[in-house]
Design brief:
Strand content: 5-15%
Radius of gyration: 17 Å
Number of strands: 5
Distance between the termini: 14 Å
Largest sheet: 5 strands, parallel
Structural class: alpha/beta
Number of helices: 10
Helix content: 40-55%
Order of helices and strands: EHHEHHHEHHHEHEH
Strand order of the largest sheet: 2-3-1-4-5
Shape: globular
Length: 215
């Protein structure tokens, strides 16, 4: 049986280039010659962001988070469960994920309360997601101020200065949570703006950590 390559999670605050980076990783690893050169025979799966679909399905808008902590907790619970279902379906495979269960927890802390975040942490979905995260490469993308933009489903204030402060706080919350939980992770610095440089950074960290869970 061939070793399973380490999963890669691309996570972080809004406007940090997560989806673009995930797409670049997908293209790279879907190249059969690249897989052959690394002796990888397993199929790669790419998990798209689940939160966007949940928010669309439940007609969620910004005020659902800013004005109702109970509504925010409901949405984060649904997102966490959806992330678990997506990962559980391919748990014995190799995947790259655009976001993770950590995102739901961190945003829960930022937009609701510590007690509500503790409710998310007590869920079986989180306990199962946590196991996969421990053996994966976690990349936290630092937000880039120049990339801040308005998204209909993104819970962002209108003031640019407030947006900048908010995403900075969220980024710090990601790092704080990962440190407290004992996860190994790397921060993709916002000084790297060119996609090729960002891509190379992730590949280097993936190689350094050990490409497979058996390394």
């Amino acid at each position: 049986m061939t070793a399973r390559p380490r999963n890669i999670y691309v996570i972080g605050a809004q406007s940090s280039g997560k989806t673009t980076l995930t797409a670049a990783l997908r293209l790279h690893f879907q190249d059969k010659s690249e897989l052959a050169s690394r002796a990888i025979s397993r199929k790669l799966y790419v998990l798209e962001e689940v939160a966007r679909q949940i928010l669309q399905d439940h007609n969620a808008i910004g005020k659902d988070v800013f004005e109702s902590s109970s509504r925010a907790l409901e949405l984060k619970t649904l997102i966490l469960e959806a992330q678990y279902e997506a990962e559980n379906a391919i748990k014995d495979s190799w995947f790259i994920s655009d976001r993770s269960g950590v995102d739901a927890i961190v945003y829960g802390k930022c937009y609701t309360s510590e007690s509500d975040a503790d409710k998310l942490l007590s869920m079986n979905a989180w306990k199962q997601l946590e196991k996969l995260l421990q053996h994966s490469v976690i990349v936290v993308c630092e937000p880039v101020d120049a990339w801040l933009e308005e998204h209909g489903l993104r819970f962002m204030p209108r003031s640019r200065s407030v947006k900048t402060k908010l995403v900075s706080v969220i980024h710090e919350s990601f790092c704080d949570f990962l440190n407290i939980a004992g996860f190994r992770y790397v921060v993709l610095p916002n000084s790297l703006l060119e996609l090729g440089s960002r891509f190379n950074f992730v590949i280097e960290k993936w190689e350094k950590r050990g490409r497979s869970v058996d390394d």
